[in-house]
Every structure is written in C-alpha cells, then in structure tokens.
Amino acid sequence: MRTERGLVVLDMAGTTIAATDQVPAAMIAAFARAGLRLEPSNVAALRGRSKREAIRDCVARLTPDPASAGATSDAIFDDFRADLSRPSAILESVADLPAWLARQEAPDARS
C-alpha cells in the first residue's frame, strides 16, 4: 500500500546545495557587492547559524551607517540567496528527487 507523503524535509548543505566553498564565497561576494568586506574567518564563524541573523550581526559591526543596517542586511541576504539559487549551485540529483520519492514505498502505518 502506498501512502502519500505530506512533507519531506531536507538539510540544505550537501543535500540540495553542493557543500563546497559556494556558501562562503556567496556570502563574501554578497557583502562585497554591498561595499562591505567580510573576511573568510568571519564566514567560518557563521556556520550553523541562521544566515539572516548572521548577516544582520555582521552588517551591524561593519556598516559605517547604523541607520541603514537593516536595509543593507536585507539586500545582502537577498543577494546571497539569489547567488545560491543559480542552477550551478543546486545538486543535479535534486532535480530527480520528486521522481525518486514517488518510487519509494511508504511504510504502512498499520504495521
């Protein structure tokens, strides 16, 4: 008996985004496009944190204009996400995920 799945949860790094240097590079590039310099050592300290919150914290420390920190943070976050959503950043196997899930037999809840 097949059961319809209502939710599938995936970890991003290494599952849907290739776990190379793409995430740190995208973060550094997004800051650079906003005119702020983010060091690779700062990016390493952000691993495992909410990227939106981490970006806000970094912008608060790096921006010369605290009044614009919120708007700058939002722009950097959007730019960072857009960079990671480019097709080259998404693992090829992810495109096959819906078909793979459809082929799997869900466990019968009565067993």
Explain what you see:
With 111 residues, the chain is an all-alpha fold. It contains five helices and no strands. It has helices at residues 22-33, 40-44, 51-62, 69-84, 97-103.
The gist of it:
The protein has helices at 22-33, 40-44, 51-62, 69-84, 97-103. Helices cover 47% and strands 0% of the residues. The protein contains five helices and no strands.
Structural features:
mainly alpha, about 110 residues, about 45% helix
* Alpha plus pi helix count: 5
Q: Kindly state the mean pLDDT as a whole number?
A: 78
List segments where confidence is low: pLDDT < 50 over at least 5 consecutive residues: none
Structural class call reads: mainly alpha
- The number of distinct β-strands equals 0
- SSE succession: HHHHH
- Helicity level, as a percent range? 40-55%
Characterize the largest beta sheet: strand count, sense, and whether it forms a barrel.
Answer: none
- The N- to C-terminal Cα distance equals 11 Å
- The radius of gyration is 19 Å
Q: How would you describe the shape?
A: elongated
What share of residues are in beta strands? under 5%
